[in-house]
Predict the 3D structure of the following.
Amino acid sequence: MVKLSEIGELELIKRLERIAPSAGPGVVKGLGDDCAVIEVGQEILLMTTDQMVEGVHFRSERTDPAKLARKLLAVNLSDIAAMGGWARWGLLAAALDGRTDLSFWETFTQTLVDQCSARDISLVGGDTSSSPGPAFFNLTLIGRADVGEVIYRSGAGPGDLVYVSRFLGDAAAGLVLLENQDLDLNPADRAYLLDCHETPLAEEELGPLLGASGLITAMIDLSDGLAADLGRLADAGGLGAEVDLETLPISPQAQALAGRLGMEAEAWALGGGEDYALLFTVPSSKAEELEGLVRRRLGREVRRVGRMQARSGLLGRKKGKTAPLNIRGYEHFRP
Amino acid sequence: MVKLSEIGELELIKRLERIAPSAGPGVVKGLGDDCAVIEVGQEILLMTTDQMVEGVHFRSERTDPAKLARKLLAVNLSDIAAMGGWARWGLLAAALDGRTDLSFWETFTQTLVDQCSARDISLVGGDTSSSPGPAFFNLTLIGRADVGEVIYRSGAGPGDLVYVSRFLGDAAAGLVLLENQDLDLNPADRAYLLDCHETPLAEEELGPLLGASGLITAMIDLSDGLAADLGRLADAGGLGAEVDLETLPISPQAQALAGRLGMEAEAWALGGGEDYALLFTVPSSKAEELEGLVRRRLGREVRRVGRMQARSGLLGRKKGKTAPLNIRGYEHFRP
């Protein structure tokens, strides 16, 4: 007998992708990207689902239900943003122990409804169940995108520049803080990093802007670390990539914490999950235009971290030398 | 501190319905029916989500993963059928203990994919996670319906006849058998009742036929027993209903088991969940036409079980006398 833990999440997903037909009524793209892309009449819909499980994604004794609701929404919003679209409708499934405080549920649902309403997302369906133990929350989001503006993981070409939308590794640094409450760090840095972990923000403005720009070739959201997610984007395009390790965008706060621990923050940037930044590729001829667009429209900078290559595999470049990037991102079922 | 178990599932859902806005972009009907009804361009979409939790909906040590996959699909298909539509796309979220056998996952997913493919449903999205204990499965289905053929829980008028699509209480009887393996019953009856519980069939043909017929006024699927679900349909229309207890359609198999236990199968029909038959209402002037249509098109009979009334509340009629039906259906969180 083989156990799931011997196989790991990535292999499980691959096996499911192998058996699920990729074509079907209205299916432009099924499994294998951040969202499914569905054609309904003249319209394009994006569909995604993401769960948060007590004891895996959060621990209820230290979890603020409002933060949990925001994060559950954000991780789903991030998938929709990564296709260049925006969310419109949501369905929530929740399983909870009967001994759970009603106030936990009420704060969770009120926050979710408020956060949805602020974005013109309607919570239109749900299912509640008791649970024999851990709490389980699953949100499905259905969004829209303009025809021709959907961005896939595939699509990058050799030589395209690789960008990320913001600092990397802050969520991983926040998790270290959460699990080591006695770590010494100044209160502002601590609050910033904890926020990055507990209430990440999806790139809801940037995603559709990039989708509509006509300047990018591929996109994915960073949920499992730069190495894992760039690996996925590269695989989807049949390419490889080189990461410039000396210019990885790392926040001063993550650097401060790494310094306190006597380690390099680079490990969080490459292998830490839950950043929910966007990772995207741009032909080098359009890089300047892209950077200018984001600066002009959103008043912010996107950060170049590497370059796609025809040869498969991920390389890291440091001090003029390259070496294979052997960093595994977060994977469920793996010990 | 108030616990969820003191409130119960119905009150939890009511509270969520109170805070979630009922209007939004494209929202024809949000929370509060079997599916959400969404308008996308000229098209109508139906959306529903349902979960199965280990230790609540099934026990893995006695659960065949193929049956579990069929049931998870059926309970969602039933919600779509109850609106008069048909399913097109599905998203699966699963959380499993890492010690789970890979063969459980493979049989589950292969069955789900096969069952979906047989119906032209595409499995287009998913999320896998480890679980610290019980397994959770959540399926979201998105379906279609023809404009003007969507049937809601509301819509019944006083005097409309109440129909169910098939025998009631078989799933509840099957659960009794499952939990009391040494009960004496003939093998064919046992197999039939266990099947009704373990692999219920959704009314995938009947639902769209009724939706398109123009003859019915309201519909709901029977997931929590006739009393609970008829109560919901009546509430949605601001009405009450009277159930004819002497003509409840009860299978010979359920009657045989009830006889063996020295009880009335009526209790299973009224209070037992998971039948996934359809419950619908028909103006009395159209009853004959409706019965004829179903007979002609599907070669089967639907069963009349009562009548809607202007006065709220549920009554049961037996031997010419009526009395309030005080039967509570299945409700999560209630002891």
